[in-house]
Design brief:
- With 123 residues, the protein is mainly α.
- It has a domain at 53-122: Orthogonal Bundle (Arc Repressor Mutant, subunit A).
- Helices cover 72% and strands 7% of the residues.
- It starts with a helix and ends with a strand.
- The model has no long low-confidence stretch (mean pLDDT 82).
Length: 123
């Protein structure tokens, strides 16, 4: 079987089956690539981990972005505040709880918010 035969056969599939097949092919290709080049994969993971640790620190410098989003969202409880901040960084590799606490401390220091017990007050 070659690529052209498979491509012709795929044209007869429904769009959902095409998506499932695409996902399966990607998973198989990634697994094969990991088996063939494990050392390259390890280096890439280290680079990604160091990158994600630096990203939240950059965001601390641009706290205005977080403030702008929080003023629109206005989470009332501490837990919703944590989730809101966490969601702001989800596409950049995530953010650690300690970095979230640093951001909250900075927001309190700059008097954007005030935490009383479990409630968030906006100043």
């Amino acid at each position: 079987m070659n690529y052209d035969v498979i491509a012709l056969a795929c044209e007869q599939l429904s769009y959902r089956d095409k998506l499932r097949l695409a996902q399966l092919l990607i998973q198989i290709a990634r697994k094969e690539e990991e088996n063939e080049n494990p050392q390259h994969r390890a280096k890439q993971e280290v680079l990604e981990k160091t990158k994600t640790k630096k990203e939240p620190l950059k965001e601390l410098d641009s706290i205005e972005y977080v403030v702008e989003r929080l003023l629109k969202l206005k989470p009332v409880r501490r837990k919703s505040l944590l989730n809101s901040i966490k969601s702001m960084f989800q596409f950049q590799g995530g953010i650690s709880d300690s970095d979230i606490n640093k951001i909250i401390a900075e927001l309190q220091k700059r008097k954007y918010i005030k935490l009383e017990q479990d409630t968030v007050h906006y100043l």
